[in-house]
Design a protein that fits this description.
Immunoglobulin-like; about 280 residues; alpha/beta; globular; 2 domains
Length: about 280
């Protein structure tokens, strides 16, 4: 497992009985996490600005003790706008700093023009990481709301004049069009959901569609690419992602890895798993 240890504006202070007590800069949240299967005492006695309550009927709601319509945090030289979203989210997954650092280093080391494709791109943290290192980015998500949020984050970081294209579209349809157009990328990132609907109602199923999408994306890579990254929060084994990458990879001299990513818990020196990553590095 790779652990993010340098995120000064974010911290899991404690975790117990299916909940995690977090600090987002100067804001303290209590959110559900099903992987917290241990009892470390009651967390609701801590300082709290908001609590997310799960509903027995699905979903849930925020109970806020101060106005948190929008708040900001930073990671190194990157800034992010956050909001209280449905289903407990804030618009950022801090554990992904593992991949932001990796991509930035690969782009910086290449010392050449780099073109990156970010699929299921959400609010754009990975896009920002590539953009700030001088890469050109194509940011694709089927949700117009998420794309608008990503635009806010680009503006927040004063990167509006940098080469980024925002696309609201079904990811699979977009990739097929890019193949027909002959467009190529030096790096590809994807963070596919377990299930989703495209911009025009297209159905996405991770189990049925992941292999085919990864296989298609291999056709979009340049002859000398830098990286290919697949993230998942769907409970897959890292070996499944690694196997797919090995079977679809069309380049020689590659390093293919897969691993859990996670965050430290300050109070008791434990680590909380937060999904998996599979990577191809090209030599």
């Amino acid at each position: 497992m790779e652990i993010v240890k340098d995120f000064k504006d974010y911290e899991i202070i404690d975790a117990s009985n299916g909940k995690k007590y977090e600090r987002w800069k100067d804001i303290y949240l209590l959110r559900p996490d099903p992987l917290v299967m241990w009892d470390n005492g009651d967390l609701e006695n801590n300082k709290l600005d908001a609590i997310y309550h799960r509903s027995n009927k699905g979903g849930g709601y925020w109970e806020s003790k101060r106005n948190l319509n929008t708040f900001q945090i930073s990671y190194k030289d990157l800034k992010f706008n956050l909001k209280q979203m449905g289903f407990k989210h804030t618009g950022l997954f801090p554990e992904q700093a593992i991949n932001w650092n990796f991509m930035r280093e690969k782009i910086k080391e290449s010392k050449r023009e780099t073109k990156v494709l970010n699929l299921f791109a959400y609010t754009g943290a990975a896009s920002l990481a590539c953009l700030i290192e001088g890469a050109s980015v194509v940011h694709v998500d089927s949700s117009r709301g998420m794309v608008d949020w990503a635009k806010e984050n680009v503006k927040l970081n004063n990167l509006e004049d940098k080469p980024i294209r925002f696309i609201v579209d079904d990811v699979v349809k977009f990739v097929k069009r890019e193949i027909r157009r002959g467009n190529k990328y030096d790096g590809i990132i994807m963070d596919p959901p377990s299930y989703g609907k495209g911009a025009n109602g297209e159905i996405w199923s991770l189990e049925k569609d992941l292999y085919n999408l990864i296989n298609l994306c291999q056709e979009l890579l340049t002859d000398n690419p830098l990286f290919f990254i697949v993230n998942s929060y769907s409970g897959l084994s890292p070996i499944i992602i690694e196997n797919i990458l090995k079977l679809t990879n069309k380049h020689k001299n590659t390093k293919i890895t897969s691993f859990e990513i996670g965050l430290p818990i300050t109070k008791n020196n434990l680590n909380l798993p937060c999904g998996i990553t599979g990577r191809i590095e090209y030599e």
